[in-house]
Amino acid sequence: MKSAARAIAERFALDGRLQEIAAYGDGLINDTYLATTDSVQEPRVIVQHINRRVFPKPEWVMANIEILIDHVEQQNMAMAAGRRTLCLPKLYKAVDGSPYVVDAEGDVWRALAFIENTRTLEAIEDLSDAEEVGFALGRFHRQVNALGAERLHDTLPGFHVAPRYYQRYIQVSATANRTATSALRASFNFVDARKHRIDVLEEAKRNGTLLLRPIHGDPKLNNILFDERSRRAVSIIDLDTVKPGLIHYDIGDCLRSCCNTAGEAPGSGERVEFNLELCRAILCGYVAEMQSVLTAQDYGCLYDAIHLIPFELGLRFLTDYLEGNRYFKVDDPEQNLHRAKTQFQLVASIERQQERIKKIVAELAGA
Ligand code: ADP
Ligand code: GN1
Ligand code: MG
Asked: Residue whose CA is closest, atom 14 of ligand 2?
């Protein structure tokens, strides 16, 4: 794959000549590479291969990203000088002028400007990091809200539609049930006890309580870039999943990722808890940006989102485990089961703190 990546990188109109290219990042879906060039201004470039099994229409993914980057750049330029901005990485064009490169297998690759002097965080360390995360997601939502969901393609039909994942799980687990170990059965029981909650956000969407808006789709902690020195959030990346959706999917996803400081794959014996103080700080930073957009109904569904999205992710990992690990990349065949159990532990922690989470939301709604 590395030599393929090199040949692909040569087909982009980069600033400077290509030097090295190496695998980069730890995403579970696409393949990411870091290329270096001899350019003084732009010595590093991110080159990515889009997974076509997951994104059946990669050209739509690219169209959404182009519209979004353009929109945010225009908004940033219209902002008063000195005001804080959230930037998105610019796309390099291919040598032939197209916005991406298609390889011999018909797969799509893109190249993005590397945002220098930034870092991602493995875990949130303090409340200031948490507020920065809230700023990043809130500013992103506020800026893309003005774009309108109808301008974006639905690149991943069913993404974050929890009842769809549940239906698939039911089909797949029916066969597995007969031979399940007791550990696996415990996960099945966990899901069964919560199946009545699975439709909560989709129902709110159907009855007009929640509206479709442009969303990021995957705002986990390591998709936010922080300034290396100030540790302020400067960018939100990994834009493949940008599409029309519920901002609640994003809020739930961001909180399940950031408030679980043990991470998606904790070591054995490590406790998985949902950290309330981090939750409060993230939501504070978020609401500071989104206050003018959020409705009473939006606040009313926040707890449901915080509870549902880790449950949904656990269900997705569990189903993939049962199907033989076809969707999420794994290093060992049991990894997706471990990831599923971790999300379920997080759900249990959220349930134990339900009243306190609702109180935080109520305080923010009244602020
Ligand atoms: P994935 O998670 O699917 O592998 P990402 O787009 O998140 O793909 O990229 C992987 C990692 O590469 C990120 O976590 C980040 O560390 C780094 N990265 C990606 N894009 C940029 C960018 N434009 N500038 C700086 N670093 C980036
Ligand atoms: C996948 O590609 P990556 O690792 O950023 C997944 C997300 C999950 C995440 C869990 C398109 O994101 O939905 O929350 O793994 N992306 C897709 O780590 O399914
Ligand atoms: Mg990523």
From this structure: 218
